[in-house]
Write a structure and sequence with these properties.
Blueprint lengths: L1 H20 L3 H16 L1 H8 L5 H12 L5 H12 L6 H15 L2 E8 L5 H15 L2 E8 L6 E6 L2 E6 H13 L1
Parallel strand pairs: 1-2
Antiparallel strand pairs: 1-3, 3-4
Length: about 180
């Protein structure tokens, strides 16, 4: 996985610089997300990796699925990647582009794993608390994991905030074992 991230980084950074220069962050973002999703489809991945299909056939199919939603800039990038048999990098390029975009817009991405479904007010309060703590806007996704028993676990970047019953029990068990 590190190799894919390493190979994708120059493309993501170049795409981001181009998007900033043309003030097209949203179009680039949408196009890369779509292109990444198309390439990640197992049938499309098989086709792109099949040497029996020509470069033109692969591009025609890829652009046929993406349609007008793929801007000229994204189409040019996709063409370069298909020519170099690197189309498989598109999902990672998209992910890295989104990361650069969030940093540029001062937005943090958080993943909230809750033991039970959160009401909208609870979710908004938690997101507001995270925004105050980190001094940035927070884009959060919420997942449910009943195995946490109660509370939540919050992932923000490399940091994990353990606030679940399961985590508390695990910490007590570790303390008792010492």
């Amino acid at each position: 996985m590190a190799e894919i991230a390493t190979l994708a980084r120059p493309y993501a950074e170049a795409s981001f610089r181009s998007a900033l220069e043309t003030k097209d962050l949203a179009d680039w973002s949408d196009g890369l997300l779509l292109a990444g999703a198309i390439v990640a489809d197992p049938q499309m991945a098989d086709l792109l990796g099949n040497p029996r299909f020509s470069r033109a056939q692969k591009l025609e199919l890829l652009f046929g699925v993406g349609g007008e939603k793929l801007s000229l800039h994204v189409r040019n990038l996709v063409t370069i990647l298909v020519d170099g048999t690197r189309a498989v990098l598109l999902p990672e390029i998209s992910a890295q582009f989104e990361s650069l975009k969030r940093a540029h817009e001062n937005v943090l991405k958080a993943r909230i794993v809750s033991a039970r479904p959160l009401s909208e007010a609870e979710r908004d309060d938690l997101v507001a608390s995270l925004a105050r703590k980190y001094g940035r806007k927070v884009e959060a996704t919420v997942e449910i994991d009943a195995a946490l028993i109660g509370g939540a676990r919050v992932h923000v970047g490399d940091e994990v905030i353990h606030a679940s019953m399961r985590d508390a029990l695990a910490q007590m068990a570790a303390a008792l074992a010492r």
